[in-house]
Fold:
Amino acid sequence: MMSTTLTTAQAILPYFKNLGLVWAIVILSLWLLSFAGFLLIDLTQFSRVYWIAIVLVRTFLQTGLFILAHDAMHQSLVPSNVELNHSIGKVAIGLYAVLNYDQCLRNHRLHHHIPGQVGDPDFHNGSNPHGLSWYFQFLRAYLPVSQMLLFLTIVGSGLVGLIFVLQVSVVNCVVVWMAPLILSSLQLFCFGTYFPHRNEENVIKSAYYPRVISFLVCYHFSYHQEHHKHPDVPWYALPDCKL
Structure:
């Protein structure tokens, strides 16, 4: 079974040489257009159902930014062009949460090298970890004090500019930017760290949802065992590598 999966992964990779770049253009464009477009609408005139719909769409696109950066770290976003690959990754991770791409790259390489062990930046450091404490530990690994200060400075300045200079409502800022950012971090933590790695046996696990559901849940990140077995396979091809 293992050799069959490996053969499948090797066989499909050539077909996705440029598809990663297409996905990058689509996700980045939709993120930017929805960010600007929804900020320009006075959301206080709409019902909360409309707000929830925007939050869900924006959360999905926000998570997409991290997925792009993640694939860039594995050189599977634009495998034919290393410089472009990492450049898109830096833009995506910067838009996501003003994160440092090189630091994230180091952390993620450690995670793949020693998953679930001491030294893994995503490690819960406990046999039966509480989800909330693990989440905050996860955030600290990717947002150390210096990076957190930079994040708060840039995001705070952005909010001040939007609210007091451009006269954008607080509701718009929360619905379009703040809520999706927080929910996206929870989504990535749950499906990329907590669910796949929460076991004492240190066994990486996958959850096999229907393909469309898997895409909507977290860009096929539920195929987590497959990702660790074949880290060079882009996110959209992970279901084809099912173990």
Remarks:
- The chain has one domain: 2-241.
- The mean pLDDT is 88.
- The CA atoms of residues 122 and 138 lie 6 Å apart.
- Residues 170-197 form the longest helix (28 residues).
